[in-house]
Write a structure and sequence with these properties.
The structure holds 3 protein chains of 3 kinds.
Chain A lengths: L2 H28 L7 H23 L9 H12 L4 H29 L2 H21 L1 H4 L5 E2 L10 H27 L2 H11 L1 H6 L4 H27 L1 E2 L6 H14 L4 H24 L8 H19 L13 H13 L6
Antiparallel strand pairs in A: 1-2
Chain B lengths: L1 H32 L6 H19 L7 H25 L4 H30 L13 E5 L2 E4 H23 L1 H11 L1 H6 L4 H23 L9 H15 L5 H26 L7 H14 L5 H7 L1
Antiparallel strand pairs in B: 1-2
Helix pairs in contact in B: 1-5, 1-6, 1-8, 1-9, 1-10, 2-3, 2-4, 2-8, 2-9, 3-4, 3-8, 5-6, 6-8, 9-10, 9-11, 10-11
Chain C lengths: L1 E10 L2 E11 L4 E5 L6 H9 L6 E6 L2 E2 L5 H6 L2 E3 L12 H7 L9 H4 L5 H17 L15 H14 L4 E5 L7 H18 L2 E5 L3 H5 L4 E6 L2 E6 L1 H6 L1 H9 L1
The chains are: A mainly alpha, B mainly alpha, C alpha/beta.
Chain lengths: 347, 306, 248
């Protein structure tokens, strides 16, 4: 693979991981909800959008809706790829992925509110496995263990380099929009309330904040973003397979968020960036030098990531990017007042 | 039909014993440290592969690996506890953080096992990543169900270990110290109990139990480094039924889950045609039901009446 | 304004509140005293919605509030501070105060994304600054709340309650561990808020000398019951009070 293609590939994965990190950062970093089931919502988004996109594609191509037939899917794909219909299908995929994941996010807010951290961890992990097992066994969703292939990259008709480039750009447009959304949300009184709930839920409640409702909202938004990432993921790889969505992925997102800085949306970006570079570089090393190395680099890679996580937890729990105060006009107004009063000193 | 029922019941006993061994470790560590240990399953895997190595390397049947399968996982868990979990505990890190660290340790261990398995596979020329269950010696056949030596041994060892554990916890000084710590650490310390030493010992035991469970697990299922994960969730389900602190109810939980999987599920499959691949969902369902309705586990029922 | 009628609350079979009756007139300052463990904080917890009473009723401005959640009760005009300050440690002092204001437009998900909350935010910022300035905490505005002294934390705890513009404020040992001179200053501030803004106060306090100079009425609790009530002068002279404090 040449450098340009490699760089584009990294950027695309970076975008997908950035979305997942922003989602966990909103839930865990700002609101204090330890979402150990992140992969479940990622997977639900991927599976729902894959199930619908493939069927939609067959329907539009006027073919019988049988997602188990590889030839049918490829044929329909070839037809649709020539038309601008790839875009509506893509957008529809994302909307469906986000919405279905959001519904499950809402349902998960019940245990998230009621259970202690370690019990919640088990429940959400178990939920992720339930999703995976059902999707891989029941053939009516995404063809059971075989999965569905032929998911269309909307730019496929352009071919090769341009397809990848434009897709990466599209992914980052979406990331930018999500980032803007989160930026506005956090730098507002709502963001303050999230942090207050994280710091001391009882105190926040006693100040009039409806923590149950807000946690529900956060789970819905966070899950929607993760579901979006799922839809984007399948259009990049071209297929959806239930067994992709294992708890290890949840841990990866936690590594990104913890490393980058738990309480900061910039931290989420930094963490996912560092992770994806390390991941892809190690992968490239493993592929290129497969013959010479005697330890499987893929295995070593996992160990390295886990050691990084343990190191971060033990030595730098706040991560690379420190949390900052919520940016509202109150900040500048009070700064002004202080300098007028002439008594601006540190403490 | 009767054969299916009998087969199911026998399997319940065997598998229930396995789950018991694995769940007890979780209950023990949770009682003294109050956080869930997600790395627990990997110690069963270590036990599994020790049994495999004993067989492949020395042609010894699985039960010869039992002592080593107790000591090595116990020691490794003790190391993890000493260098990762305990410092976090002492620093009063939030439970979320400690749980995440147990996860990280789990994955790290899993891939260390992968690396070892890789190397050893190449050395002996067999694929150890998906290794068939270890050979057991059939002893008798009962209503179509073959009773092999692992059945007898698993039950015997399960009963022996749980009785020993019971005796230990109630009749020995160290055991009573563990229960005191589980009840109220500060109170225990004020009575002169060396909490850190006792806790370390408890963690070592938990690892050992998981390892022993792993050996028997190796006679029952395909062996792979991923097996730890599946085991973990079932063990947790059993421990949760026990409210994470009650030994007796954890054992009950282990058999409840085993029964649901091996008898109930089989009948559901027979009568409703629901695929057996959904079997793992039972433990997940159990977890969800117990946690949402009664987070302190079934044990809570007894407390209320008192 | 606040009326507690025959409230009972038990924990594990023990009655922490044993048929408690208490009334706080609008605009008044009322003291709640008693030895440790007599149930004062539990009473606050029940009134503010942290616990639901087993029996009895609580009226706020004539409305029944027993069993409502803390945030609902706060929404009806009741504010409450905690015995050990519950500050939002990783947030700055300014953020702590700003978040304490009630019913902010910008706190709703839909409005947060628009510009509609900016005006209110500016107004609240000015108010926050004046509160901080009065308590001489303004230099600490950008400090994380974990990085202030214990005495400053107490002041901040009170400031947070008052920022919420309550009609009635329940203060739990507002001068706990604070030097006498500062304690009087705090009570001066409370009285000022009471006189100028008409905020009603129910205050738990151990510093009886200070408390009695400021409140209009006193309730004495012991072992979950109200054993004495009356004007501060009367309670100060009563032998019951002496017994309770020496015996308890």
């Amino acid at each position: 693979m040449d450098v340009a293609s490699f760089a584009i590939s990294i950027m695309t994965w970076f975008g997908i991981y950035a979305l997942l990190s922003l989602s966990l950062n909103l839930e865990l970093g700002y609101t204090g909800i330890p979402n150990f089931g992140k992969v479940a919502f990622f997977g639900i988004g991927a599976i729902a959008s894959g199930a619908l996109a493939s069927r939609l594609m067959l329907a539009i191509a006027g073919m019988p809706i049988d997602i188990s037939s590889r030839e049918a899917l490829f044929k329909a794909g070839d037809l649709i790829a020539q038309t601008p219909l790839t875009f509506p299908i893509f957008i529809f995929s994302i909307v469906v992925g986000a919405s279905v994941a959001a519904v499950f996010g809402y349902l998960s807010s019940y245990p998230a509110i009621r259970l202690k951290a370690d019990y919640l961890a088990i429940t959400l992990l178990a939920f992720g496995e339930v999703v995976r097992i059902i999707a891989r066994t029941d053939e009516s969703i995404i063809n059971g263990p075989y999965g569905v292939i032929g998911i269309l990259n909307p730019y496929r008709i352009l071919g090769g380099f341009q397809t990848s480039l434009l897709y990466a750009v599209t992914v980052w447009v979406i990331v930018a929009l999500v980032f803007l959304f989160i930026y506005k949300l956090i730098n507002s009184p709502y963001g303050r309330v999230l942090k207050a709930i994280r710091e001391d839920e009882l105190a926040a409640e006693s100040l009039g904040k409806n923590s149950v409702k807000i946690k529900q909202q956060v789970m819905i938004i966070g899950s929607a973003i993760a579901g979006m990432a799922g839809a984007i993921y399948i259009h990049h790889t071209g297929s959806v397979q239930a067994d992709t969505f294992v708890p290890l992925i949840t841990i990866y997102i936690w590594v990104m968020v913890m490393l980058g800085g738990r309480g900061s949306y910039m931290g989420a970006l930094v963490g996912s960036g560092i992770f994806v570079v390390m991941d892809q570089v190690l992968l490239a090393v493993a592929t290129t030098y497969k013959e010479i190395l005697f330890i499987n680099v893929n295995y070593l890679k996992q160990i390295i990531f886990m050691l990084i996580l343990i190191f971060v937890i033990m030595k730098m729990p706040h991560g690379v990017v420190k949390e900052k105060a919520v940016k509202t006009p109150a900040l500048s107004l009070v700064e002004e007042e202080l300098s007028h009063a002439g008594s601006r000193e540190g403490s | 039909m009767l054969d299916v029922l009998v087969g199911g019941l026998m399997a319940t006993l065997l598998v229930g014993s396995l789950y018991t061994l694995m769940a007890l470790g979780i209950t023990l560590t949770y009682s003294v440290s109050r956080f869930a240990n997600f790395s627990h399953g990997e110690f069963s895997v270590i036990g599994m592969y020790i049994a495999v190595a004993c067989f492949e390397g020395f042609k010894l049947p699985y039960y010869f690996s039992l002592p080593l399968s107790f000591l090595v996982p116990g020691a490794v868990l003790l190391v993890a506890y000493t260098f990762v979990y305990r410092p976090l505990e002492e620093r009063r890190a939030s439970p979320i953080i400690i749980v995440v660290s147990t996860f990280a340790v789990a994955i790290a261990l899993r891939y260390v096992v992968y690396i070892w398995v890789d190397g050893y596979s190449r050395e002996i020329g067999r694929n150890l990543l998906a290794y068939p269950p270890l050979i057991t010696k059939p002893l008798a056949v009962f209503h179509g169900y073959t009773i092999a030596d692992n059945f007898v041994l698993a039950l015997v060892i399960m009963v022996a270990l749980t009785s020993a554990l019971h005796f230990f916890l109630h009749q020995t000084k160290t055991g009573r110290a563990i229960r005191a710590i589980a009840d109220n650490v500060d109170l225990a310390r004020s009575k002169g109990i060396k909490a850190s030493l006792i806790k370390s010992f408890t963690w070592f035991m938990a690892g050992g139990l998981a390892g022993v469970g792993g050996v028997f697990w190796a006679t029952y299922t395909t062996i792979s480094p991923e097996a730890g994960w599946l085991v973990l969730l079932k063990a947790f389900a059993a421990a949760i039924i026990g409210g994470m602190v009650s030994i007796n109810w954890t054992i009950a939980g282990a058999f409840i889950i085993s029964f649901s999987e091996n008898v109930l599920m089989r009948f559901v499959w027979l009568f409703f045609g629901i695929s057996l691949a959904y079997q793992p969902l039972i433990s997940f369902l159990a977890i969800a039901i117990v946690l949402l309705l009664r987070p302190q586990g079934l044990m809570g029922i007894k407390l209320r009446r008192a | 304004m606040l009326e507690v009628v025959k409230v009972v609350k038990s924990f594990y079979g023990l009655r922490a509140l044993d048929s408690v009756n208490l009334k706080v007139e609008k605009g008044s300052m009322v003291g709640l005293i008693g030895p440790n463990g007599s149930g004062k904080t539990t009473l606050f917890n029940v009134i503010s919605g942290v616990y639901k009473p087993d029996e009895g009723e609580i009226y706020l401005n004539g409305e029944k509030i027993a069993g409502l959640t803390p945030h609902e009760i706060c929404g009806k005009g009741l504010g409450r501070s905690f015995q050990q300050p519950r500050l939002f440690k990783e947030m700055t002092v300014l953020e702590n105060i700003m978040v304490s204001a009630r019913s902010q437009k910008g706190e709703s998900l839909s409005k947060a994304l628009t510009r509609s909350w900016l005006e209110e935010e500016a107004r609240l910022a000015k108010k926050a600054f004046s509160i901080l300035k009065f308590l001489q905490l303004e230099r600490l505005a950008f400090n994380p709340a974990s990085n202030i002294s214990a005495g400053q934390a107490r002041l901040l705890e009170i400031a947070k309650v008052l920022m919420g513009d309550p009609q009635i404020a329940l203060l739990d040992e507002p001068t706990g561990g604070v030097a006498p001179r500062l304690s009087e200053k705090i009570f001066d501030y409370i009285r000022k808020i009471n006189r100028e803004f008409g905020v009603t106060f129910l205050i738990i306090e151990h510093k009886l000398g200070v408390l009695f100079d400021y409140v209009d009425y006193v309730y004495l609790m012991d072992r979950g019951k109200i054993v004495l009530e009356g004007k501060p002068e009367e309670v100060a002279k009563s032998s019951t009070a002496l017994e309770v404090y020496l015996g308890g």
